[in-house]
Amino acid sequence: MGSFKSTLHANGKDEVLEHGVAVIATGATPLMPSEYAYGKDACILTSLELDRKFMNDDPLLKTLKSAVFIQCVGSREPDRPYCSRVCCTHSVENALELKHRNPDMNVYVLYRDIRTYGEREYLYKEARENGVIFIRFSVDDKPQVVLDNGRLTVRVKDHILGRPLELETDLITLATAIVPNRDEKLANFFKVPLNADGFFVERHAKLGPSEFATDGVFLCGMAHYPKPIDESIVQGKAAASRAVTLLAREIIQTSGTIAEVVPTTCSSCGVCVSICPYSAPSFIEEAARFNPGKAQINPVLCKGCGLCVASCRSGAIRLKGFDNDQIFAQIFALNEAV
Ligand code: SF4
Ligand code: SF4
Predict the structure, then answer these.
(1) Looking at the structure, do residues 54 and 163 belong to the same domain, yes or no?
(2) Distance between alpha carbon 306 and the CA centroid of its chain, in Å?
(3) Looking at residue 90, which CATH number applies to its domain?
(4) Best residue for ligand 2 mutational test, from 305, 318, 323 (most atoms within 8 Å of Cβ)
(5) Residue 277: what pLDDT?
(6) Is the C-alpha dihedral spanning 74, 78, 80, 84 positive or negative?
(7) In sequence order, what are the residues at sequence separation of 6 or more whose Cβ sits closer than 8 angstroms to the Cβ of residue 255?
(8) Over 90: is that where the pLDDT of 233 sits?
């Protein structure tokens, strides 16, 4: 389907790989928060930083008597209107982990909406049963973090009591947003779409969830949208299996109604290369023996949509089966019939 060359840079060396398909799995990054006094106290962490403390069995964890989790930090706000999807489950899991280590500890989760979807709902139920307290807040009235001589306090308005609460705590964990890499260069290269948030958009949510409209280009993981590791793995396997299905074919059959460039008429303007939604046109390399610098169309990728034919100002592209002569013959025949 494709004929790509990728250069890998590692240990000061370059290695060029040639490949026929590509899987876009560029991931995403966690937001580094600028609110809730993050960075001003060693006991205000992001969820990943708390994970690291669990992994290292950090001594701080043994001293805790109270912990507060604040959800939707940077998510579902004007700059990032999407839900980051993994943070509710992540906080509930970490809240349970703290409760398992010290059942007498006070653990609060301050949330706007809890989205522990699917079977993760059981974790939410378990957290409630283990005494984790969930307090809802509104985006217009966010919790306030107060630092006073090394003491941490979180102020939040309880929407059921209708009263402000003050929670003295030893640890604050911020469930920060997942931020897409918004790789427009890559998107333009492969002619694949990014949505307004900066995530790549699949061909079809149900019929093509791990592929793009451009044949031979696939996607998986958080490059697509925020998702937990199990869903990323499933999508990675789906993308790999779709890619292998293509690579395993000895013969690829194409439609006959595809576009073709007449090189003598092509003025190398590049309109067809930029307009085709399937990345089918490209320029013939300057070093080529025939028609260097002229456009050519990869017949395997062309879907025969006719966009380039209508856009080529030099009239250098014909759509097989829909030549001007054929169209005019139909119009004249219709005229005579009338
Ligand atoms: S739009 Fe027409 S003239 Fe321009 S590069 Fe393509 S085929 Fe050539
Ligand atoms: S006919 Fe459509 S799919 Fe084929 S090269 Fe032209 S724009 Fe691309």
Answers:
(1) yes
(2) 30
(3) 3.50.50.60
(4) 305
(5) 87
(6) positive
(7) 302, 303, 304
(8) yes
What is the side-by-side strand order in the sheet with 151-158?
A: 144-148, 151-158, 163-169
* Span from the CA of 281 to the centroid of ligand 1 (angstroms): 9
| Cα atoms found within 13 Å of the Cα of residue 3, Cβ hemisphere only | 6
pLDDT in the model for residue 82: 96
Asked if 216 and 22 count as a contact pair (C-beta separation under 8 A), the reply is yes
Confidence grade of residue 338 (pLDDT, cut at 50, 70, 90): confident
- For residue 278, the CA-to-ligand 1 centroid distance in Å is 16
**Selection from 136, 68, 52, 59 nearest residue 105 by Cα:** 68
Specify the pLDDT at position 160: 87
**SS3 assignment, position 75:** coil
Bridging pattern class, strands 217-219 and 22-24: parallel
Q: What is the pTM of this model?
A: 0.83
* Residue 326: Cβ within 10 Å count: 13
Residue nearest to atom 6 of ligand 2 (CA): 308
One DSSP character per residue, 135-170 reads EE-BTTB--EEEEETTEEEEEEEETTTTEEEEEEES
pLDDT digits (tens, 9 = 90+) for 18-67: 999 999 999 999 999 999 999 999 999 999 999 999 999 999 999 999 99
Range of the domain at 72: 29-178
Domain boundary among 143, 178, 213: 178
